[in-house]
Amino acid sequence: MAERTDSDTTRRSERSRRAIYDSALELVGETGYGKLTIEAIAAHAGVGKQTIYRWWPSKADVLLEAFLDAAGRAADEGGGAALPDTGDIVADLRTVLRATVDEFNDPVFEAPYRALAAEGIANAGLGAEVTAKILEPRLRLFEQRLSAAAEAGQIASDVDPRMAVELIVAPLAQRWLRRTGPLDHIYADTLIDLALRGIGPRRV
Amino acid sequence: MAERTDSDTTRRSERSRRAIYDSALELVGETGYGKLTIEAIAAHAGVGKQTIYRWWPSKADVLLEAFLDAAGRAADEGGGAALPDTGDIVADLRTVLRATVDEFNDPVFEAPYRALAAEGIANAGLGAEVTAKILEPRLRLFEQRLSAAAEAGQIASDVDPRMAVELIVAPLAQRWLRRTGPLDHIYADTLIDLALRGIGPRRV
């Protein structure tokens, strides 16, 4: 009987947690981060606000975990977190960057990440967490794929892998965050081409 | 006499405006954008808050104008807004990107711009203004310099100038805003080198 009760509690907790995550992600898209409150998340999720405060110290923590949970489930559905490796770095980068463009154009994904990025830019403490938990793992996946490409002779071997990654992902991220231009598949393809060839004069 | 009074009023207004700008820039660095208030700016500047509301509808507008005013004065001191053109694009980009690194490492410059960037990322309306008034004019200066370099055969002529600019400035901006790595002159030089050569395999 004790066991049965424990598992009921676990199931209820899990249901509450899921409802809190869903509510945080949905509400931040509707109201923006500034107007998001623990009270509103609790009301929307149908739990008491003490339930939220018992698990998370602030709305930033709720939203960050909710986002990581959703991203983790999306990665599982997509067959894991590693970048594709078909042996063709250009094709693989196109696949990944086009998918990134699609994510940045999807309000369900982009609204909470935009809110976390903006708040992390303003507040160094949260920013360190957002960078460490969302951005850095992503950059490392690119680094690994580019290192494999360097070994295969498809990427210059004398380039710092981290700087190579930033050359590819930062322009796309800037267009998204600062809304400086169109963000579509053609842009993704052109960016990859440009990062590989560079903007210097063409050698003939 | 009427003329004298007008000019006194103008001088007082100008003094108030300057005090409001200085206060906005100073306070945002101390308290962050979220806790910045018109009341605090007014108290710090020694003016009534109605004086501020008469000139600007919101704290975002005060801060944006204060930043643009400071940036404009800095550009005047530096001999104008155009990028240097010594005829050597690599040397000129190094000069400009090193100066940008110095600005991003200077709390007096970077605190208000970081606050405006973060708030603009979260709020599309302010973001459009920040991008149009701060970021876009800067990108256009780079575009002009790169176009001159393309004509001189120092930059590939088949590259979209806007994408070329983003390849250079976005990685630096990302390091600054997301705090993903060191931001120093060596980084600036390496970034320029990488953007010019690309990360693709070296042709021999």
Automatic annotation (TrEMBL), chains A, B:
Residues annotated as domain HTH tetR-type: 14-74
PROSITE patterns: HTH_TETR_2 (PS50977)
SUPFAM superfamilies: Homeodomain-like (SSF46689), Tetracyclin repressor-like, C-terminal domain (SSF48498)
Key words, A-Z: DNA-binding, Transcription, Transcription regulation
DNA-binding region: 37-56
UniProt GO molecular function: DNA-binding transcription factor activity; transcription cis-regulatory region binding
Pfam families (UniProt xref): TetR_C_11 (PF16859), TetR_N (PF00440)
UniProt-listed PANTHER family: HTH-TYPE TRANSCRIPTIONAL REGULATOR RUTR (PTHR30055), TETR-FAMILY TRANSCRIPTIONAL REGULATOR (PTHR30055:SF148)
Protein name: TetR family transcriptional regulator
Species per Swiss-Prot/TrEMBL record: Streptomyces tsukubensis
